[in-house]
Amino acid sequence: MSSPHAPHLDATRARQGRWGRPVFWVLVISLALAVIAVFAAWAWHAGPYASAQHRRRLAEARQATGFSAPAPQPKWTPAPPSPAGVNRPG
Is residue 50 part of a domain? Predict the structure, then answer.
């Protein structure tokens, strides 16, 4: 039961809303809090993660020094030809 003085709105117009300033500030503040939360979580776990990587690298270095393979042979490259008449055998 509508009042005779109430404005008439069709269904599409009645469902549309406006953003307005309060919605903008809620979005900005929630985005800032999300960025702060991600940074805080990263900072909280960065130390243990870095030390775990350091321990893994040390363990790999210890294992690598225990590996006893022969040294690789140098690649053979032919000697450049000597100039004509200099130190030629024969």
Answer: yes
Structure confidence by residue, pLDDT tens digits, 2-29: 567 777 877 777 777 776 788 889 999 9
In whole angstroms, give the CA distance from residue 27 to residue 30.
5
Domain that holds residue 53: 34-62
In a domain, 80, yes or no: no
Task: Record the tokens describing residue 46, joined without a space.
Answer: 């960065």
Q: Residue 38 and residue 45: Cα distance in Å, rounded? A: 11
Domain count, the chain: 1
pLDDT tens-digit readout, 66-82: 666 777 777 777 777 76
Comparing CA positions, the residue from 17, 39, 37, 19 lying closest to residue 27 is 19
pTM above 0.85, yes or no: no
Listing DSSP states for 27-65 in one string gives: HHHHHHHHHHHHHHHHHHHHHHHHHHHHHHHHHHHHHHH
